[in-house]
Design a protein that fits this description.
By secondary structure, the protein is of the alpha+beta class. The protein has one domain: SH3 type barrels. Helices cover about 15% and strands about 50% of the residues. This is DUF2642 domain-containing protein.
């Protein structure tokens, strides 16, 4: 999970994050100084998601 987030940050790819409460969030992860949370940017703004709440991460890869 953390590996996929790290790769997505480096390549500026969109991810789909599934949380423990059943929510699915999509956006581009960004590096943050908060070590316990991931910063996710999407059209609604910025969301901080605690790593402990993340169940599954999927990278969304666009083809040219």
């Amino acid at each position: 999970m953390l590996k996929e987030l790290k790769i997505a940050m480096e390549k500026e790819q969109v991810v789909s994050i599934h949380t423990k409460d059943g929510e699915v969030l999509m956006g581009t992860p960004e590096k943050t100084s908060m070590q316990a949370k991931v910063k996710l940017r999407n059209e609604d703004g910025i969301t901080f998601i605690p790593y402990e709440d993340i169940v599954h991460v999927m990278r969304v890869i666009d083809f040219p």
